[in-house]
Structures are given as structure tokens and as C-alpha cells.
Amino acid sequence: MGASMKNIFGLLTGNFMKLVLISWLIGTPLAWYGMNEWLKEFTYREPISSSVLITAGIFATVIALITVSYQSIKAATARPVENLRRD
């Protein structure tokens, strides 16, 4: 209803990225602890580097950005008049 694509993208992305960041901050220590406990049982053990957890966070962020971008473009290019007429 008059919002630019930049505004729609900013609103959707900002809120969603906050949720991704919070979930990463909660999940990273839990994943590190769980992997350390699981790997204690192995004879030959490789230490877990922080780069694995950071890479997982980056992949999650990229996937979330792609998803939100698709939905933002879809919402920004939709014509609200046509949607209102159908109902």
C-alpha cells in the first residue's frame, strides 16, 4: 500500500535476522557442549574448532536471507487491489 521494496525488505529482514541471531547464540553453546560430550567416547578425537560453528551460523543466515528476499520481492510486487477484489 505504497511502501517501497526497500522498506518492505528492511522490515521483514530486520525482524527475521534478529530471530536467526538469537537462535544461533542459544544453539551454538548447546551444539558445542553436545558434540564434546559425544566425542568423549571416541578413541581418536579431533577437537572442535569454532570455525565449524561460525560457518553453520553463516549458512543459516544466508538461507534465511534468501528465503526472506524471495518473500519480500513477492510481497512488494503484489498488487493489493487485485487481492482485495478476489475476496
What does this protein look like?
This protein is an all-alpha fold. It is 80% helix and 0% strand. The chain has 3 helices and no strands. Helix 1 packs antiparallel against helix 2 (50-77). It is rod-shaped. The model has no long low-confidence stretch (mean pLDDT 83).
Count helical runs. 3
Name the shape in a single word.
rod-shaped
The amount of helix comes to over 70%
Oligomer: single chain
Task: Give the H and E element order.
Answer: HHH
Head-to-tail CA distance between termini? 17 Å
Q: Quick check: average pLDDT?
A: 83
- The helix/strand class is mainly alpha
What's the alpha carbon Rg, rounded to whole Å?
20 Å
Let me know the number of strands: 0
Largest sheet: none
Summarize the structure.
This protein has 87 residues and is mostly helical. The chain is 80% helix and 0% strand.
Summarize the SSE layout with pairings.
Blueprint: H1 5-39, H2 50-77, H3 80-86
Helix pairs in contact: 1-2
